[in-house]
């Protein structure tokens, strides 16, 4: 793999490569379950944090797609992405309801975006999560590392109950990469699943760097899925390489893995995220499921 983290495909030929990839596999498009669209002031603060190489990133992290919202939408669609998410996450109380209002409005004006919602452990969470479900939320986002909270916080018990009953997937950053937090890792998730065993969790970044332990949980809980976000790219492989002896289980979980990119907050081109999956050599059928069909089935994308 490239030691510099440089993508295999330059920005100029990403569209051509991805079009060829879709045509070769017979895909109507790509579904990306891990993209970020946020209120502009929040996005600017996120970019400023990455620019500062803050303690949660631990290294330089240049943003490859630092453009205004409409340009980013055009870029993503140009890559052949047929459906995507607007993952937001609060880092303190009294943000969740406001973020959910924004994502609901964004979904209304962006039909190819999955209606996304979020929450934080606070007394109001049950109410605004119930409202998000009532308005048609299709996916939730939780960021244990940034939020700095235990997913098993008692304030979240009614929230997890609502989500489990509604069968709405939750993209959850719970692995300890890139930097471990007090509540990251498989332990808190295992405790949560003992109380809510039917939670449809999508473990972000394949659970990096605790790939094995999260795979172990997936063998016990059939509603656990994974997204590929940043995993297998040169940028991640330099620090948290995926264990080669887990490729067998990676193949066997082919029905439970969804493509994710972290667009626009990636330090390489979009095509590299897809190429990184191709070079695993797990077969065209595995790629078809991961890049489109699994998410299409889960979210009802026609």
UniProtKB/TrEMBL annotation:
<keyword id="KW-0456">Lyase</keyword>
<keyword id="KW-0378">Hydrolase</keyword>
<dbReference type="InterPro" id="IPR032466">
    <property type="entry name" value="Metal_Hydrolase"/>
</dbReference>
<protein>
    <submittedName>
        <fullName>Amidohydrolase</fullName>
    </submittedName>
</protein>
<dbReference type="GO" id="GO:0019748">
    <property type="term" value="P:secondary metabolic process"/>
</dbReference>
<dbReference type="GO" id="GO:0005737">
    <property type="term" value="C:cytoplasm"/>
</dbReference>
<feature type="domain" description="Amidohydrolase-related">
    <location>
        <begin position="31"/>
        <end position="300"/>
    </location>
</feature>
<dbReference type="InterPro" id="IPR006680">
    <property type="entry name" value="Amidohydro-rel"/>
</dbReference>
<dbReference type="InterPro" id="IPR032465">
    <property type="entry name" value="ACMSD"/>
</dbReference>
<dbReference type="Pfam" id="PF04909">
    <property type="entry name" value="Amidohydro_2"/>
</dbReference>
<dbReference type="GO" id="GO:0016787">
    <property type="term" value="F:hydrolase activity"/>
</dbReference>
<dbReference type="GO" id="GO:0016831">
    <property type="term" value="F:carboxy-lyase activity"/>
</dbReference>
């Amino acid at each position: 793999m490239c030691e510099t983290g440089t993508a295999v495909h330059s920005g100029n030929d990403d569209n051509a490569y991805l079009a060829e990839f879709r045509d070769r596999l017979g895909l109507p498009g790509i579904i990306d379950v891990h993209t970020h669209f946020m209120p502009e002031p929040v996005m600017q603060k996120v970019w400023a944090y990455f620019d500062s190489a803050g303690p949660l990133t631990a290294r330089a992290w240049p943003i490859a797609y630092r453009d205004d919202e409409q340009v980013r939408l055009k870029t993503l669609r140009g890559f052949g992405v047929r459906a995507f998410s607007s993952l937001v996450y609060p880092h303190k109380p009294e943000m969740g309801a406001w973020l959910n209002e924004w994502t609901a409005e964004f979904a209304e004006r962006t039909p190819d975006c999955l209606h996304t919602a979020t929450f934080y452990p606070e007394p109001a969470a049950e109410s605004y999560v119930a409202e998000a479900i009532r308005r048609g939320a299709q996916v939730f986002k939780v960021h244990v590392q940034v939020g700095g909270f235990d997913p098993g916080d008692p304030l979240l018990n009614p929230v997890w109950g609502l989500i489990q009953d509604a069968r709405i997937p939750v993209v959850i950053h719970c692995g300890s990469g890139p930097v471990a937090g007090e509540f990251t890792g498989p332990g808190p998730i295992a405790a949560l699943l003992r109380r809510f065993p039917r939670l449809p969790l999508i473990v972000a970044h394949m659970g990096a760097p605790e790939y094995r332990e999260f795979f172990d949980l997936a063998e016990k809980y059939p509603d656990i899925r994974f997204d590929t976000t940043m995993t297998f790219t040169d940028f991640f492989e330099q620090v948290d390489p995926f264990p080669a002896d887990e490729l067998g289980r990676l193949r066997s979980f082919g029905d439970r893995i969804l493509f994710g990119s972290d667009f626009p907050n990636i330090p390489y081109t979009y095509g590299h995220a897809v190429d990184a999956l191709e070079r695993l050599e797990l077969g065209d059928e595995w790629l078809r499921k991961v890049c489109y069909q699994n998410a299409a089935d889960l979210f009802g994308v026609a």
